[in-house]
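Narrative progress, year one. The postdoctoral researcher (J.K.) led the effort to move from monomer predictions toward full complexes, under supervision of the PI. The following entry was the first complex the group processed end to end, covering 718 residues in total.
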Amino acid sequence: MKRFKITMAVVASAALLLSGCGGDPAGPRSDFDPNAPVTLDLAFWGNDTRAGFYQSAIAKFNEKYPNITVNSTFLAFPEFWEKRQIEAAGRDLPDVMQFDYAYLRQYSQNRLLLDLKPYLGKYIKTDGFTESTLGIGVVNGVTTALPVGTNAWAMFTNTALLGKSGGTPYAGGTSWDEYATWMGSVTKAGGGAVWGGTDPTGRIQNFEITLRANGKNLFDDAGAPQFTKAELTAFWSGGAQVRGAGATIPTKRLLEVAPKSGFGAGLTASELTWDNFGAGYAGDLGADASGLALAAPPVTKAGAKDLYLKPSMLHAIAANSEHPEAAALLVDFLVNSQEAGEVFGTNRGLPASSTHLAGVKLDPLSQKILDYETSIKDRLGQAPPVPVVGYGSIEEKFRQLGEELGLGTVTVEQAVDQFFSELDTILKK
Amino acid sequence: MAGYGFLAPWLVGFFGLTLGPMAVSLYLSFTRYDIFNPPEWIGFGNFVRLFTDDPVFLRSAKVTLQYVLIGTPVKLAAALAVAMLLNSITRGSGFFRSAFYTPSLIGASVSVAIVWRAMFAGDGPVDGSLRTLGIELGGWVGDVDLAIPMMIILVVWQFGAPMVIFLAGLKQVPAELYEAAEVDGAGPVHRFWKVTVPMLSPVIFFNLLLETIHAFQVFGSAFIISNGSGAPGGQLNFITLYLYKRGFADLQMGYAAAIAWVVLVVVAIIALIMFRTARSWVYYAGDQR
């Protein structure tokens, strides 16, 4: 391991030196031959369901461009980013990547992503996008990514599971206390086989919406945290009460079914997450998606504008790609084409491009997501600033500490201290 | 001069791939370095943070030591016991030798880690069989107290490699020593402690040193079983895994390099202690003392 690390360090520094001499490519080549055989690497995060969708989409892409071979790989979200970081160090990123908003600033600022401007309009159609959706992929004036879709924070419930275990449906948009009480009742009815939900305090997004209910964000425009130790302590202490009452699934069970979530494994009746997770859940549960329903998350203050629409994911091209034109054609197909819309539905969020959306046959689940986003209109506020550099690590640290709180291996005070010390280090970086 | 010419390929490898990177890593351990921006010198900052402001590191060090200090002796004891059994049978020893050796060939693989995870999960075979015996543990994978024992069982299961070395050592012990001891009235226990162990002590020392260092390097199985997170409650967050996450997930390369150097120093100290104490318990036949 040690030797591996050292080797990596040398590879990284050598790559830095080499890339420093290279300079940036000056946009698309005029002699690009759209029929020349080319091989592209495509990386995305997701599960088997999404991998199946990508396979079908690539097959359709190849009907148009039989000369472009696409090798795709996928991983779960945290591992996906660990792998990208290593590749970024060696300037060896895959040609086309599914990209997350949380990492966009970091990768764009370090010039790891291709400036798409010369390709827009020529290889990538932009007619389907509104000005504001195109603006999502712009960092410091440079377009480095195109949004695939948008999503919002939501509550999924499994009505089929509730029906079987004798629980009542969740009303949506209640107070957090009422949600906890509801989870408790479902857990009780479930008799040890089904739980009401997962402790919501393990996810930073739930903390974020409680902050937003009070008119704050996690971070301000300058990247400074807008929350105090006292606020985080109060939030995590609230979680301890819910767990103490036995309303939520034990963390130990969650660890055993990982990488599936408790909800995906059919053990919990509700879960707070992004609203485009429905198709993934349907795949995990291996059941008809008709049992899945969406409800508004609990609200901290009645009338708060705590939710927001964010890009669920984007597509970017690596600056190190040797075939930027072909990569741009693939990105265009993935974000704009009706064919891709037919394949993916709302798996990657509600499509941002209107041509892409036109292809989406709204299956019952997609229709529910669309209806959900319409239903929360009054709760949608202004989106927070583009996430700070290192936000991915911050989110993961929050999740891990939530897990440890669930296991009882740290106290709330220790967890808060660890989180702030981590925050200091990351923001100083 | 011609000699150096012939040595050149090795020298290039040694300076370019071993010594050079080590020097760079030592330098990086005194910096803050995120891969994208040039390293920034912060003196002993990383080391101070490790020991005063990072409870996760201290816990990683603790669980790694637990794993090494319990896993290695148990593994060696199992290896020696089975080697002695195999040494005493004449028929089929070749088959058993291969059979016991196989786990150490595949034990570090990803597939075994996945199987291990499935076996020790809440509804897996291990838990199921224990339940029929009336022992209700409810899954090891997510259990804070059972995760390290699960890993120790995995490493002990791979006792084949030291076993083969022990077996070779046992074949070297002269039969006349046992005969002489037997004539003097020594029972099996006495023969083991007074003949086998002293005669085998160089092999025991070799295995102990190797397996201890090897145990510090545990990574793949812990990574797979905990889904890369070191869960439950950081019990599988062994020092190598923590180093990897700091370096490649958090991009704190300088900090990761500092961890690597702390591990190197700790392993070196342990090896030094072993070599020092070896003088008093390792017997080399033909040694003039």
